[in-house]
Amino acid sequence: MAPDGFVPTAAELRTSSSAGLVQRLLSAAHGLERRFDDCFSPLGLNLTRAEVLAYVARHGSDGCAQTDLAAALRLSESNICTLIERMRADGWLLRMRSNVDRRKSIVMLSPRGLDVMDELLESRRRQAAELLGALETGQLETLNRLLDAVLDSLAGSVTPSTSTIELRRAS
């Protein structure tokens, strides 16, 4: 059973209490994750795998260090290693040792990973437009400012729940 005060009451969810707002943000985040999992499913991907491909693609033909990828996605080394190995076995990624530092692994897109990028980005753009298309420009700007404030308050904070998120996202 959850400790008292952990789960917001129905009244808190309908007001602007901190607990209610955080719960609504978490609900929105979970909903977005499900929607993007569904969006990427026809490509044979989920949101986490799409994030990996997009991050690696941004680093071009030189690829990126596995440790940098883990840090960017807030996954542990063991979780990112497992995820990369699965994606390598599925043909999305290539992994090799760095020529500069043999202790480091470099991750690059495979030909299959390169081929799916345009479609992945277009799917993400369409889904985002569908989700936020009803908002006016001013509302989008306000939402951006508010989300920036929340993200700024989170910057640098690591919580014990991170490991739980990592386990869920490493699929």
Automatic annotation (TrEMBL):
Pfam families for the chain: MarR_2
Gene3D superfamilies: Winged helix-like DNA-binding domain superfamily/Winged helix DNA-binding domain
PROSITE patterns linked to this entry: HTH_MARR_2 (PS50995)
Biological process per Gene Ontology, one example term: response to stress
Any one GO molecular function term: DNA-binding transcription factor activity
Domain HTH marR-type: 18-152
Secretion signal, residue range per the UniProt entry: none
SMART domains: HTH_MARR
Protein name, per record: Transcriptional repressor MprA
Native organism: Caulifigura coniformis
